[in-house]
Amino acid sequence: MIRYLAAALVAALLSFTALAQDAPRTIEMKVDGLVCAFCAQGISKKLGRMEATQEVLVNLEKGVVAVALKPGQDLSDEALRGVLTEAGYSVQGIQRSAETLDTLRARLKAAP
């Protein structure tokens, strides 16, 4: 009986770990109105202050703002849209993925 419970516990932990790895880690937003380094710095500060934020990426050339989430954390689309709208930007789309910011950075750099 104890072996069965131990095996079930291990299986549950492995399933949880797999789910956590597949959970969205990055929120990528298409934003209109990004024109200068000052814009990028302001957005980075505002989003960086949010408790769930681990790191922020702003790509002026592509009009992309991305937030890497801390493990187990999330931010609602409404909260993100609110911060960016309040700062004077227009959010055209929000996408969540398991992609890291480093991978996103490389993809944005390679895109025409």
Features:
single chain, 112 residues, alpha+beta, Alpha-Beta Plaits, four-stranded antiparallel β-sheet, 4 strands, 25% strand, globular
Helix and strand layout, with pairings?
Layout: H1 2-22, E1 26-32, H2 37-48, E2 53-59, E3 64-69, H3 77-86, E4 90-97, H4 101-110
Antiparallel strand pairs: 1-3, 1-4, 2-3
Can you put this structure into words, describing what you see?
Residues 25-92 form the HMA domain. Keywords: Signal. Residues 1-20 form the signal peptide. The radius of gyration is 18 Å and the shape is globular. The protein contains four helices and four strands. The longest helix is centred in the first third of the chain and has 21 residues, at 2-22. The chain is an alpha+beta fold. Strand 2 and strand 3 form a beta hairpin. It has a single domain, classed as Alpha-Beta Plaits (2-Layer Sandwich). Strands 2-3-1-4 form a four-stranded antiparallel beta sheet, with helices on both faces.
Shape: globular
CATH fold description: Alpha-Beta Plaits
Across the major sheet, the strand order is: 2-3-1-4
Q: Number of folding domains?
A: 1
Q: What's the CATH architecture name?
A: 2-Layer Sandwich
Name the beta content range.
25-35%
* Count of helical regions: 4
